[in-house]
Write a structure and sequence with these properties.
The complex is a heterodimer of chains A (243) and B (434). In chain A, a hairpin with a 2-residue loop joins strand 9 (205-210) and strand 10 (213-218). Chain A has one domain (5-239): Rossmann fold, CATH 3.40.50.300. Chain A starts with a strand and ends with a helix. Chain A has 243 residues and is of the alpha/beta class. In chain A, helix 3 (94-102) runs parallel beside helix 5 (138-151), helix 4 packs antiparallel against helix 5 and helix 8 crosses helix 9 (232-242). In chain A, the strands form 2 sheets. Chain A has a 6-stranded mixed sheet, sandwiched between helices. Chain A has a 4-stranded antiparallel sheet with strand order 2-1-4-5, covered by helices on one side. In chain A, 39% of the residues lie in helices and 25% in strands. Chain B folds into 2 domains: 62-183, abc type-2 transporter like domain (abc type-2 transporter like fold), CATH 3.40.1710; 188-424, no CATH class. Helix content of chain B is 70%, strand content 8%. In chain B, helix 6 links the parallel strand 4 and strand 5. Chains A and B meet through helix 2 and strand 6 of A and helix 8 of B. The structure holds adenosine-5'-triphosphate and magnesium ion.
């Protein structure tokens, strides 16, 4: 059985800083997998390596059996990456931006028009899509970017804190969409989040990472039972506090 | 009183913080202190060198003289020049002007030839109009020094004519272009050719600076607006992204270039009309000063190559900046490489520069289109084409480096590091806490 993501003993150093230190995990196809951990734990670094943006110092990651270093161009066809801090070209309209982004994705995943229509629905931006991105609020920009990551029906969506900066209603909406996409199009999702409610609601499996290593992994329920706590937040505090 | 003290201390604290912020920013440190310290001495050295080379030339200057008259007035004139001119007078024995010009170029290093026509003495003594011709070599490569020697000669003749000569005579200035005598005065040629001497180098410089600014901004704004990561994760080759940036910048730069050319052409046109009033229209093609179509192609290639290398360099350099402002100030240091050749080429004779200066100038890729602008007029296509090849190789190396940079994580993580500064600070800390 092949994995959607297979990370093995990943390490990454920035000068003296060890951002990742022997990170290993596996994600089954169709799974929503959550990475949680304190600030600076290495979540973003792991997601950037999987998205072919930076190179691991050692270890490897395979996305659907393709190595992210040696077969980066194949991997880029399979994934959609939503960076933690991302912007859109501010002099394009939302629609132009979506069109531009859709033009690079595989035709078999739907026509350009279809993708833009899906993105319009996901973002909920309506007529505002015709306005320039520079007139958007922070949350509107985030919705546009989430929509662009999901509209192409990637095999693997890598979402770094997808709902950060979104209001409650739109967070709920985006989570719904993520769930729908996974069901409808067989998308695998890897997200990082600081919102335990979100992780508990979305993820089938969660990895708790600290200092670049996984210190606990399992279903949200398992993590709660193992640590004998009421919710993920407490589990997080307990595990990270111990580590 | 106390209030004032409090105010002063507050001010002092703010000033200390400002100074720390400013002096710890490597961009400001380099821009305000290092660059001026290096740039001004180099500029001063170059300009002094060029002035000295012009002065030296004027001292070693030889002037050819052909006397077809060989009578008392012509002998007087020659004697006057011999005694008063700081330059060496070389007598040339020739049967006609064509031969004299040939001998001038083969046997002497003179760039000016005085011709005293037969009947000079007779015309003067009979009160008929008499004249002396001064032929000056127009090279098209000497920048502003082009008309220096010929104007010195005319001035001496003028001096003699007004105050010493018994009867007045006229001087007629003419030019030698590519070994052939023509009737066009050098000042007219200079006015016309100033488009090559001034307009092209300035236009090329502005174009280079402008497009480097665009290219640097296009990379840095992707970083500043946080769009680069998304772009790099898309299924397009990194080389395509790089090429897209290059082509985009070239198109914008080309539009800018055309606008600049049109503007400058209009501006220069107003001067050229003035220059032409006295002497009538000059057929540049007939005297061999109009660039051929091949020449234009070579100049175009040279400008394009330099542009491409400037863009690649700007993209590489700006990859080390975190935002647009940073990228523009880093790229700003490169302008020295454009401005210095421009000034040197406009104001000096490249051929008269010392060897090391020549080598340095040729090593800088941005000199080449400015030199090519001269080469295509003098017909020195070989030099221009070698320049294109050199800049081409330089560009290929840069593009390779740029595509390497784009295909690694460095484009995201690269930062200007000042290891030297950090190292020093560490050392100081160590000595403080043994
Ligand atoms: N480009 C970089 N240069 C140097 N150090 C880096 C770089 N990127 C990340 N780091 C370091 O690597 C470590 C992990 O950072 P990372 O961004 O992966 O954390 P994170 O888990 O995403 O944190 P957060 O919850 O705050 O987003 C941190 O110590 C950080 O300082
Ligand atoms: Mg992060």
């Amino acid at each position: 059985m092949s994995f959607a993501v297979e990370a093995e003993d990943l390490a990454k150093s920035f000068g003296n800083i060890k951002a990742l230190d022997g990170l290993s995990f596996r994600i089954n196809p169709g799974e929503i997998y959550g990475l949680i951990g304190p600030n600076g734990a290495g979540k973003t670094t792991a997601l950037r390596i999987i998205s072919t943006l930076i190179l691991p110092t050692s270890g490897y990651v395979k996305v659907h059996d393709h190595d992210v270093v040696d077969e980066a161009s194949v991997v880029r066809k399979l994934i959609a990456y939503l960076p933690e801090e991302a912007g859109a070209y501010k002099n394009l309209s939302g629609e132009e931006y979506l069109r531009f982004m859709a033009s690079f994705s595989l035709r078999e995943n739907g026509s350009l028009e279809e993708m833009v229509a899906i993105a319009a629905q996901i973002s909920g931006l309506g007529n505002r899509l015709r306005d320039k991105v520079k007139t958007y609020s922070k949350g509107m920009k985030r919705r546009l970017l989430v929509a662009r990551a999901l509209m192409t029906r990637p095999k693997l969506a890598v979402l770094d804190e997808p709902t950060s900066g979104l209001d409650v209603l739109h967070s709920v909406h985006v989570r719904e969409i993520i769930k729908q996409q996974v069901k409808k199009y067989d998308v695998t999702v890897l997200i990082s989040s600081h919102n335990m409610l979100e992780v508990e609601y979305l993820c089938e499996k969660v990895a708790l990472i600290n200092h670049g290593k996984i210190i606990a992994e399992g279903t949200p329920d398992k993590l709660k039972i193992d640590n004998d706590v009421e919710n993920l937040e407490e589990a997080f505090a307990k595990v990270v506090g111990l580590a | 009183m106390l209030r004032w003290l409090v105010l002063l201390r507050g001010l002092g604290n703010v000033v200390v913080k400002e100074l720390k912020e400013l002096l710890r920013d490597p961009k400001i440190l380099i821009g305000m202190i290092v660059v001026p310290l290096i740039m001004f001495p180099i500029l001063g050295f170059a300009i002094r060198g060029s002035i000295e080379s012009v002065e030296e030339r004027l001292q070693m200057l030889q002037i050819g003289v052909v006397d077809f008259d060989r009578q008392s007035a012509s002998e007087d004139l020659k004697a006057f020049l011999q005694n008063n001119l700081t330059v060496t007078l070389v007598s040339i024995n020739a049967s006609d002007i064509g031969e004299a010009v040939r001998l001038l170029q083969t046997d002497t290093n003179a760039t000016d030839l005085i011709i005293i026509p037969s009947g000079f003495t007779q015309n003067i003594s009979q009160g008929n109009p008499a004249y002396v011709e001064i032929y000056s070599v127009f090279s098209g490569t000497r920048g502003i020094a082009e008309i220096a020697s010929s104007s010195i000669v005319s001035e001496y003749l003028e001096f003699y004519r007004r105050d010493l000569a018994p009867e007045p005579f006229n001087t007629i200035s003419k030019s030698i272009v590519k070994g052939k005598p023509t009737d066009v005065p050098p000042s007219t040629l200079f006015t016309i050719m100033s488009s090559q001497v001034f307009v092209l180098p300035t236009t090329i410089s502005i174009l280079l600076v402008f497009s480097m600014q665009i290219a640097a901004t296009s990379v840095a704004s992707e970083k500043e607006e946080k769009t680069l990561e998304t772009l790099l994760s898309l299924p397009i080759s990194r080389f395509t992204i790089l090429a897209g940036k290059l082509v985009g910048s070239i198109i914008v730069a080309a539009v800018g270039a055309v606008t600049i050319m049109i503007g400058f052409n209009y501006y220069m046109g107003s001067f050229m009309l003035m220059g032409d009033v006295g002497s009538g229209p000059v057929d540049l093609a007939a005297i061999g000063l109009a660039p051929t179509p091949l020449g234009y192609v070579i100049l175009g290639a040279s400008i394009f190559m330099a542009l491409l290398s400037a863009l690649a360099l700007a993209i590489i350099i700006s990859a080390f900046a975190q935002d647009v402002r940073g990228a523009q100030s880093i790229v700003g240091y490169l302008y020295v490489l454009i401005m210095l050749p421009m000034i040197i080429i406009m104001f000096t004779d490249f051929n008269a520069l010392p060897l090391t200066a020549k080598i340095i100038l040729l090593a800088v890729p941005y000199s080449h289109p400015m030199l090519a602008a001269q080469d295509i007029i003098t017909g020195n296509y070989l030099a221009a084409v070698s320049g294109v090849i050199y800049v081409g190789l330089f560009t290929v190396a840069l593009l390779y480096a740029a595509s390497r940079l784009f295909s690694t994580e460095k484009i995201l993580t690269a930062k200007l590091k000042f290891r030297g500064l950090k190292f020093k600070r560490k050392k100081i800390q160590n000595s403080e806490n043994p």
